[in-house]
Amino acid sequence: MNIVDRLRGAPHPEAAPALISGDGVLSRGRLFEQVDAAAADLREAGGVAGAGAVPRVGLLSPSDATHLVLALAVLRAGGCVVPVPPELSPAERDELAKRVGLDVVVVAGRTRWRGAEASRLSRSVGGIDVDLVRFAANGVRAAGGGEPRFSEDDFASLDPAFVRFSSGTTGASKGVVLSHETIARRIAAANGGLGIGADDRVVWFLPMAHHFVSSILLFLQTGAAIVLAPSHLAADVLAIGREQAATITYAAPFHYALLAAEPSAARWPSLRRAFSTTAPLAVETARRFDARLGVPLTQVLGIIEVGLPLMNVERAREKPEAVGRPVPGFEIELRGEPGGGATPGEIGELYVRGPGLLDAYLSPWRRRDEIAPNGWFGTGDLARADGDGDLELVGRRGSVINVAGQKCFPEEIEAALLAHPAVGAARVHGEKHARVGAIPVAEVVPADPALPPTEASLLAHCRARLARFKVPADFRIVSHLATTPSGKVRRS
Known about the structure:
The protein is an alpha/beta fold. It folds into three domains: 3-148, Rossmann fold, CATH 3.40.50.12780; 182-396, 3-Layer(aba) Sandwich (Rossmann fold), CATH 3.40.50; 401-477, GMP Synthetase, Chain A, domain 3 (2-Layer Sandwich), CATH 3.30.300. The protein is 26% helix and 28% strand. The chain has 13 helices and 27 strands. Strands 2-1-11-10-12-13-14-15-16 form a nine-stranded mixed sheet, with helices on both faces. It has a five-stranded mixed sheet with strand order 4-3-5-7-6, with helices on one face. A four-stranded antiparallel sheet has the order 8-9-19-20. α2 (28-45) packs across α3 (65-76), α8 (234-243) crosses α9 and α9 packs across α10 (283-293). The longest helix has 18 residues, at 28-45.
């Protein structure tokens, strides 16, 4: 099966809006007409030809209708889409190309590919001007040992649709392979929790290079209209939300913090659900947003290897810090040391089993059965469940700081710091200490560089919110923090 055929066959009117932006309304019928035309043009120009049965096609594009059309066109033409985040440096793009063994990159918009290449063809595909950058004898497949470390036959046997790299916050990112069938299962499972339908209009903020399969494709499958936010400015978002009678937001805590702080009295009466993803949600942000717009923030746990297995649907207002419970079809286990179950209140590693698990890691090659024995995938997240069965994430395995035998997690200290009005971003790590083993140390980016927080105010703030052993022993004011391509704080 091809996921584009599944999306196109969904029983929604051709005239229904698929995407609404500053350029106007793109109907479902017109979207798929443009996808078919672009797919035909890509085939004719060799834009989906490669060394194997399923070419790997990089997509470097703005996060708008162009990305949507081109991604679907590559899939329709028989290629496997490999999103290339626009923020990557030339060296990082070359590394991605080598690890994946890209056959070609489709480049749209103002961005240009700068790196190893064998040929470049500029042309129109489906009415979109693109560069087709091809790698051959002098390109990434031969440069620096760039030949893929996997079998083309093994890769093709999966019926692959997407390869997307994990965040890599604590180590090397992994190429996650998702098949057409896996994507279909993932979409169906995710909407069992999201509950999005054809009458919904979803305001979209996030970069499509990082968020597409369990969101953008899901909206198309359900018939919901995608409303592109014109900017991240809260006033602009509120305006388009009211103008388009949008019912859903799907965004990061950063966006909700901006909306919560918007000073006008403007309301958003059509908004019924607000989903928060990509990063832990600060309780203060959730409370302020709810007070400002009258809608609780629902945390959604997204994992590229799994999909959207957990959502705080039932107790979003009462427990905004929780990621909730498994959506229908998913099971979870919290495994303590050494692999036993964690009782309520105890911390354990989160394992997940359910529909839509990844098909393989690309390089080095590992198939699903090897990655997730008996269907159980170890997320690396540490969590605890309360008496109601709601889960709260407390950190990542390997990031624990052991202070004189007491464990604390960088994420909980960072959450406390982010509640300080003068803190824009924070990262906490453990440093060795001769007497207690390790101590937490905080790096803080001021919200306003001209008005950095004082160490005394940070210390008092943390002491009011954290156990004494969790309070950072040192606060270091920095201008910025290194992040992964998806915007998460890099920890190594």
